[in-house]
Amino acid sequence: MIKVIKPGVLLTIQDLGRVGYRHLGVSTAGSLDSYAHIIANRLLNNHDNDAVLEVTVGLCELEFNCDTLIALHGADLHAKLDGRAIYPGWTYTVKNKQVLTFDIGRGGLRAYLAVKGGIQCPLIMGSRSTDLNAGFGGLHGRALSAGDVIPIQAAANTQAMKQIGALTPAKRKAIRLHPSPHAKLLGPKLVNHFLSTGFKVSCQSNRMGLRLSHADTQQLVHCHSLPSLAVSPGSIQLPPNGEPIVLLNDGQTTGGYPLLGNVIAADLHQLAQFNAGDEIVFNYVSFAQAQQAQQALAAHLAQLNIALHNARG
């Protein structure tokens, strides 16, 4: 078991999300940085979809009540185990009663803590992910609080573990998009301004979406309204006030705002690590370019598998 001493800003249990229920209005949920999630699990020889802890901003404190193995990935939130610094991208042995702390950090917003065997909360609609808006999944459907006990299995023979590490895919400031399905409705002037503008991430952003601001909001103001249509993580909505919203995993399943485009699958995980005040720019790419980007990520994970296999002998 892991006892939460301090939850920090936002601490949740997540796997890779709830798939196949969006037609019923159920959000995907799941780890926002899916590649950090997958790499952390692979470092421990877990299943990719095993549940992990998503640590947002940091400032949390966890006490382990059994021996286990852990791996960190994602942002460097200055983690320490009994006061000794540990780093994202590496595996570590943890002993009963050791305490893991996170400070605020650098290089992103969210860190992912995987434990050997994964977190053992119940499956709901095929997933252990916490849906904060609907109030189910994870532990009682909410963010973790001080005093909560997180169920994990003790790991046997932790002394035999060989410490191994892995790099994360490179971070991007320029996010690639599939072109806008509403380009004709919005007009070329508005679309071109969107593509030539640097946006700042608003402090009002959360797991539902990144809210973006920019110096000249009037250039993106409009009065269009549409019948509700399906949206998904990565859809970029444009409200009438001209400040785009990039939907994330906890976002709604339908919406009536025009869309400026959809973030390609290969770049979705990048959105998890933007802090308030960070700048984002967008550019449209072809379907072939989007496929190439996805293939590059798949190759990164394939190389990791080979390296881990060789490291474990």
Please tag this protein with its features.
6-stranded antiparallel sheet, 4 helices, 313 residues, alpha+beta, single chain, 7-stranded mixed barrel, globular
Q: What is the secondary structure topology, with strand pairs?
A:
Elements (H helix, E strand, L loop, with lengths): L1 E5 L3 E5 L19 H10 L8 E5 L4 E4 L3 E9 L3 E2 L2 E2 L5 E4 L4 E3 L4 E10 L33 E2 L23 E5 L4 H4 L1 H9 L2 E3 L7 E5 L15 E2 L4 E3 L7 E3 L6 E2 L3 E5 L15 E6 L2 H26 L1
Parallel strand pairs: 12-20
Antiparallel strand pairs: 1-4, 1-11, 2-3, 3-10, 4-9, 5-8, 5-10, 6-7, 6-9, 12-19, 13-14, 13-20, 14-17, 15-18, 16-17, 16-19
| Content of β-strand | 25-35%
Characterize the main sheet. Answer: 7 strands, mixed, barrel
Q: What structural class is derived from the secondary structure elements?
A: alpha+beta
Helix count from the secondary structure assignment: 4
Cα separation of the termini:
30 Å
Task: Please compute the radius of gyration using only Cα atoms.
Answer: 20 Å
Mean pLDDT: 93
Determine the fraction of residues in helical runs and give it as a percent range: 10-25%
Strand order of the largest sheet: 12-19-16-17-14-13-20
SSE pattern, N- to C-terminal: EEHEEEEEEEEEEHHEEEEEEEEH
Overall geometric form? globular
- Poorly predicted regions are none
Number of strands: 20
